[in-house]
C-alpha cells in the first residue's frame, strides 16, 4: 500500500483460497475487512489515530480468487472529531466490485501503547 501526494492510498493484491466464500470467489467478509483496513489506514497515514464507528460496504460484483485486484481509499471529509473515508476494490478490467464508506472517530487514547514503525 502506498499514499500519493493527494492522500489517495492504492494497493494491488490477489485473493487466494484462504479467502474463499462461494466457489471461485472471495467471502464478503474478506473484502469488508480489506476496505476497513484501507479506509482506516489512509486516515492514519494523514496523522490521525482513529477507530471505526460505522462502515458501509456495497457489493457490486463478486471478487474472483487468483486474479489481480486493485484497491483505492481516500479521506472524503473531516470535522472536529470525525473523519470520513471511502474506498473501492476494482476488478482487473477496472470495474468497481466492492465499495465502502467509513466513519472514524479520533481516539488517540486507544493507541497510547502502540508504536508505529515507519519504512525508510
Task: Supply the key terms.
single chain; 120 residues; alpha+beta; Thiol Ester Dehydrase, Chain A; 6-stranded antiparallel β-sheet
Task: Write up this protein.
By secondary structure, this protein is of the alpha+beta class. It has a single domain (2-111), classed as Hotdog Thioesterase (Thiol Ester Dehydrase, Chain A, Roll), CATH 3.10.129. The chain has 1 helix and 6 strands; from the N terminus they run ββαββββ. The chain has one helix at 28-45, and strands spanning 2-3, 9-14, 50-59, 68-78, 82-90, 96-106. The protein has a 6-stranded antiparallel β-sheet with strand order 1-2-4-5-6-3, covered by helices on one side. A hairpin with a 3-residue loop joins strand 4 (68-78) and strand 5 (82-90). The two termini are 14 Å apart.
Radius of gyration: 15 Å
Helix content: 10-25%
SSE sequence, one letter per element: EEHEEEE
Largest sheet: 6 strands, antiparallel
Brief overview:
The chain is of the alpha+beta class and 120 residues long.
Mind sketching the topology for me?
Elements: E1 2-3, E2 9-14, H1 28-45, E3 50-59, E4 68-78, E5 82-90, E6 96-106
Antiparallel strand pairs: 1-2, 2-4, 3-6, 4-5, 5-6
Amino acid at each position: 500500500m502506498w499514499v500519493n501526494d493527494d492522500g489517495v492510498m492504492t494497493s494491488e493484491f490477489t485473493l487466494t483460497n484462504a479467502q474463499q466464500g462461494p466457489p471461485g470467489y472471495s467471502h464478503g467478509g474478506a473484502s469488508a475487512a480489506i476496505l476497513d483496513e484501507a479506509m482506516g489506514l489512509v486516515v492514519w497515514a494523514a496523522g490521525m489515530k482513529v477507530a471505526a464507528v460505522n462502515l458501509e460496504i456495497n457489493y457490486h460484483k463478486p471478487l474472483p480468487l487468483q486474479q489481480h485486484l486493485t484497491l483505492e481509499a481516500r479521506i472524503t471529509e473531516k470535522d472536529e472529531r470525525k473523519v470520513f473515508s471511502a474506498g473501492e476494490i476494482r476488478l482487473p478490467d477496472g470495474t468497481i466490485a466492492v465499495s465502502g464508506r467509513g466513519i472514524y472517530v479520533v481516539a488517540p487514547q486507544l493507541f497510547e501503547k502502540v508504536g508505529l514503525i515507519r519504512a525508510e
